[in-house]
Design a protein that fits this description.
Blueprint lengths: L24 E5 L15 H6 L1 H7 L3 E4 L27 H13 L3 E6 L9 H8 L12 E2 L22 E3 L5 E3 L14 H15 L5 E4 L37 H12 L7 E4 L5 H8 L5 E3 L3 H4 L4 H17 L5 E3 L8 H4 L12 H5 L9 H16 L4 E5 L20 H5 L43 H4 L6 H15 L6 E3 L5 E6 L3 E6 L11 E5 L12 E6 L2
Parallel strand pairs: 1-2, 1-11, 2-3, 3-7, 7-8, 8-9, 10-11
Antiparallel strand pairs: 4-6, 5-6, 12-13, 13-14, 14-16, 15-16
The structure holds 1-deoxynojirimycin.
């Protein structure tokens, strides 16, 4: 691709150090909800470029963009029509290049989402498969099968889609295709070399434009055992406990795909990075994170943990060991576009926590009662704790504003396929995808000039960037300070545990950087040294409940 005047060459848009990602802070942008530059109600790439100052002010090392590819949005963009283009509503390839170049000027790398398990049903391959005959090469890029029953009118088996309902959909000539997610997301057939080669092309396409790496969607799926007889849904092995026995999750053969990707990653200098979204048993995560594979994998353990010292300590320790054992660094995630925001999770009674809080969402956020202050207080403490850990921190847009989930979106605006496919019994993920508030008032709180694709609640205004920018106690300024301090204090990927109080998580990083979190009601004494940051005011020099402080010894 020839460089255009004013834009740096693609290679210069990537970080120069091969290990840049190991302890990076990566900020997830959900593009449709970040900022809308053209007033169509949908966030877009120019909106990201226009708000580069926000990312620079925060001090992030990279942004990870959720899909911005052409898509009918049957699943928020995870239904991709074309892997090597930009949705015209979100911009153009030139605007993508401009965004990457502007961020690179500020040393912010770009990581893009890649969705290899399924295309959309509007992808050229799937349209060709529908036009072609059963058994044709076009159909062999997907998983088409004949139905069962005397006239083939029953699906090939009773497997269920993740979003609810059957995992098979029938086409006009009577065959069925597999979709582990929505019917608009037909699963690709990864034994087919066409599929493997095409993804290598996609990786090179974005890398040649200056992308530094990839977030790999449902990395533990892709390769399937479709041999018959199919196990019945009720007889499928537990996906988190099996050892490669499940027909469609976490099969050992999937790693051959990533060995191939690794070869492509190594064509670049420095090599591309990747992070796997793999919901697998922790001990099976290592293979995805291996340096011969994708290199890093999301660890969702803290995101699923209750707010409890013992649980945090155990999970941190186990994950650091696992990451070290596979030659990678650990990742820490408290929120993303698929789960209830952590400020809200931590404000719900213990039993209602967990990533989805389905019952609370179904009640429109009324039952059980959300303790807004406690939720935010814990979220701030949890964030400081995770930012002090060795490894990389993945942040989700809006958490730096202390945003809560929007649990009361009216049914008619819900977009998540889960809502429809669960027969309106599971609300889904729209409440964490509501467009960001930038200004205290005005049209869509500064998100765009003409409304937002999901309605923003009134309370968004007081949490807007504008409202928090100059307030030294704001969550936004806590994040800014935390990232700045973290950069200064960061050292080797090591940690030493301290203390014996079961309600306290206290560890030290090289250079005398202590992080102390008090989960219990009794204020605790901090170690000797200067308190460089705290998630809430101290109580007479003591660390109060649900608070984290960073102390530098000496
Ligand atoms: C995981 C993504 O994070 C989620 O948003 C999406 O619905 C599924 N994969 C299917 O692509």
């Amino acid at each position: 691709m020839p460089a255009r005047p004013g834009l740096s060459a693609p290679a210069q848009r990537r970080p120069s150090h091969p290990d840049w990602w190991r302890q990076a802070v990566v900020y997830q942008v959900y593009p449709r909800s970040f900022a809308d530059s053209n007033g169509d109600g949908l966030g877009d790439l120019r909106g990201i470029t226009d708000h580069a100052d926000h990312l620079v002010g925060l001090g992030v090392d990279a942004v990870w963009l959720s899909p911005f590819y052409p898509s009918a949005l049957a699943d928020g963009g995870y239904d991709v029509d074309d892997y090597r283009d930009v949705d015209p509503r979100l911009g153009t390839l030139d605007e993508f290049d401009e965004m990457v170049a502007v961020l690179a000027e500020h040393d912010i790398a770009v990581v893009v989402d890649i969705v290899p398990n399924h295309t959309s049903d509007r992808h050229a391959w799937f349209r060709a498969a529908l036009e072609a005959a059963p058994g044709s090469p076009e159909r062999l890029r997907y998983i088409f099968r004949d139905g069962t029953g005397p006239d083939g009118s029953q699906p090939p088996n009773d497997w269920k889609s993740v979003f609810g309902g059957p995992a098979w959909h029938r086409v006009a000539d009577g065959q069925w295709y597999l979709h582990l997610f929505a019917p608009e997301q037909p699963d690709l057939h990864w034994d087919n070399p066409d599929v493997r080669e095409d993804f290598h092309r996609t990786i090179r396409f974005w890398a040649d434009r200056g992308v530094a790496g990839f977030r790999v969607d449902v990395a533990h799926s892709l390769v399937k055992d479709m041999s018959e007889p199919y196990p019945a849904a009720a007889a499928l092995p537990d996906e988190f406990r099996d050892h490669g026995e499940h027909p469609f999750w976490d099969r050992d053969d999937v790693h051959e795909v990533y060995t191939g990707w690794r070869r492509v990653f190594e064509e670049y200098d420095p090599p591309l990075m990747a992070v796997a979204e793999a919901w697998v048993a922790s001990e099976r995560r290592a293979r995805y994170a291996s340096p011969d594979g994708l290199g890093q994998a999301f660890n969702f353990d803290l995101l699923e943990s209750p707010w409890a010292a013992e649980s945090f300590r155990t999970l941190v320790s186990a994950n650091l060991d696992l990451a070290a054992g596979s030659g990678t660094s650990s990742t820490w995630v408290l929120s993303n576009h698929d789960v209830v925001r952590h400020a809200s999770r931590y404000g719900l009674p213990q039993g209602e926590r967990g990533a989805s809080c389905d019952a609370w969402l179904m009640s429109g956020g009324t039952s059980p009662r959300l303790d807004i202050e406690t939720g935010l207080r814990r979220a701030r403490a949890g964030t400081l704790l995770t930012m002090a850990l060795p490894g990389s921190a993945y942040l989700y847009q809006g958490e730096e504003l202390g945003l809560h989930e929007v649990p009361d979106l009216p049914a008619e605006v819900l977009q998540d396929p889960t809502w429809l496919r669960s027969g309106h019994t599971v609300k889904g993920r729209d409440g964490c995808r509501v467009p960001l508030p930038w200004t205290v008032d005005g049209s869509s709180f500064g998100f765009g000039s003409n409304g937002a694709h999901l309605p923003q609640p009134r309370w968004f205004g007081e949490l807007a960037v504008e409202a928090q920018d100059q307030d030294p106690g704001s969550t936004l300024n806590l994040y800014r300070s935390a990232l700045r301090q973290r950069r200064e204090l960061q050292g080797d990927e090591e940690l030493t545990w301290h203390g014996t109080d079961p309600e306290v998580v206290h560890f030290e990083r090289p250079g005398g950087w202590h992080s102390v979190t008090n989960f219990g009601p009794r204020p605790v004494v901090l170690p000797e040294g200067s308190v460089v940051l705290a998630s809430a005011p101290l109580d007479d020099g003591m660390l109060p409940q649900d608070t984290t402080a960073w102390v530098v010894a000496g």
